[in-house]
Amino acid sequence: MNLLWKCIVCFAATLTFVILYQLTAKGSATAYAQSYYVDSVSGNDSNNGTTSTSPWKTLGKVNATSFAPGDTVFFKAGSTFFGYLAPATSGNSSASIRFDMYGSGAKPVIDASGVADPIGGEGVAAVQIYGKEYLEFTNLEVTNNPVIDTTLGRVPDNKDSYRLGFLIANDNIGRTLNHIVIKDCVVRDISRNIPYQSKHYTMGGISIYHYGANSTWNDILIENVSMSNVSVTGIYEIFYNWNSKIWNPNGPNGEPANDYNLRSSSIVVRNVSMTDIQGNGIAIGHTNGALIDHSKVSRFAMIPDEYFVGIWIHNTDNTVIQYCEASGGEMNGALRDSEGFDFDKRVKNSILQYSYSHDNAGGFLLNGLDDESTNNTFRYNISQNDKTVLVKRLNANDKFYNNTLYIGSGITSKLFGIAGSSGTFVNNIVIGNGTTKYKDTTTVVGGTHDYNCYYGLTNVLTEAHSLTVDPLLVGAGTGGQGLHSLNGYRLLSTSSCINIGIYLSGNGGKDYFGNRLGMYDTLTDIGAHEYGDGSDLTFSNFESGTASEWTAVSGTWSVENLDTYVYKPASSSDAITYTGNTSWANYFVSAKVKITSANTVAGVLGRYTSSGDYYMLRLNKVTSNVELYKKVGTTFTLLGSKAFTITDGTWYYLKLVMSGSSLQGYVNGQLYMDITDSIIGSGRIGLRTVNGMAQFDEVGAGHN
């Protein structure tokens, strides 16, 4: 071999070593990740399955394969797979194992109808996640209906077994299991062919189950899931059974009892919509720090003579339920529960906010069924035409404030029932139909009850600062389906409920409609609407997940859910977006602004013209100043600047007030700029970032 060829061979070997080293240095999950394909029509389990032209055929082949972290199994769109999916291996903290779809068309269906219980006692689930972790399931449709088409060669399942869509089980693994994602999936027709018994409580769409010493879950996300025709419960997170406290190996038969430490963590249910649920909608228990967000349950509690609720929690700490809707809880036979929401036994330090309950047979809220439930908050919610009892018990440290409750004509209901109230009940509007009772004569109401407005109720107790007049709402009782159907519950400008409530610190910062609270003072309105925001020209809090009214001039703008929905550019380049009308002249523009990277300049635009002229009140991270600029043509003129310390990740409230030639700039309610300039007379509002990243929320404009 001559010298040239020796050099070439040596270089190739060195290059190969470098590539392999770089791959393995990132972890085997990245270096050796493999894709697999499954097609129920054209596949063959004798294929290698590694390309879409040589796919496998059955779930049995998938279940028998040991996948590695980073692998992805793709099911062909439009396929139907009979049986159940049960991954044999886990991913790891560096890379999950993913199950997704390929091709175009309907989501692939996993149909477990007629399948015998594969484990014995745990249940028949279309997707069985048993003792595994770091798994992600996306774009799948699952069903599990015991009504069988015998022409397909399957027989009815007559066994007394649980039937589920997804079962996520940690059964005596002895440690916390992590990271399960179910996203963009459909769960439908999860039925039973046996009479309902209490032990079937956890049958249903998605059941998260843990049992045994130190056996818990962490980091479960259920997002963008549509669910229908499910028996018994839509989504359930549970330790052994709903009433248990903790594993106690010395308990009777080794069953759980008498402690609190066994809690799953970081359980998130977001953007889930479900209808026709035989029992409970969403029930989360034995957790710490769970979140139920932007989810909807309609038509539930259809099994007679049982205890079911739309959205409820039990044995939980630090749970937040927000932007949720629960409706259509039925009464079949003896009425037991059927409330929209429930903070049941042993719930502590949890919050229900910005949610909507309507047309439920059992009322709006069931709360605190034992004295171990404490320090829970219910604020800025709306209840419409909930029946029987609106509020069933408030414990001593519970706070129920700034809610609006409406009972229409012909509906029998009362405000308080069961154990009454010993908590704080303030700043609420309660509208009855003239015969609505405040409470029964035997119901005890104590604690702090004041600064409320009662209208159309009988036997209301005397409260020092409360009103008994028409609160003058835009259109009470006109709410329909959806969180955004409730503009009728805004206060009219002539309402007596404006500015007479009691200010409460730690109030969440905004009302039901997204209006800011307490930016300039502690004046508080009564009810779920804070009238004083004044953004009568336009207001965007982006809670719909879109910003369709905004037009991007430069940069790519989008709404993202980062704890709350925010509007932001995709990159650090110069980005401008606007909304409004070019005829707007004398008005204010305001927004919450959060700078998230170094060297960023971000702020609000006023009088933005068709030719791109504007005034800009901005935060300059580079110079640590708040600045007021004017742009005319291509010329930028600094009109004013003052020192201001800017901290990354902190929200600042900017407000630019324009009246004739007067320009005033505020940050967090404090006046920093008072300038005279008359060059730009009218225009839209806008947002701009330069040289970095920022987020915007609660952007409004109103007449001065």
TrEMBL record:
This is DUF1080 domain-containing protein. Keywords: Signal. It comes from the Bacteria. Residues 1-33 form the signal peptide. Gene3D superfamilies: Exo-inulinase, domain 1. The keyword Signal applies.
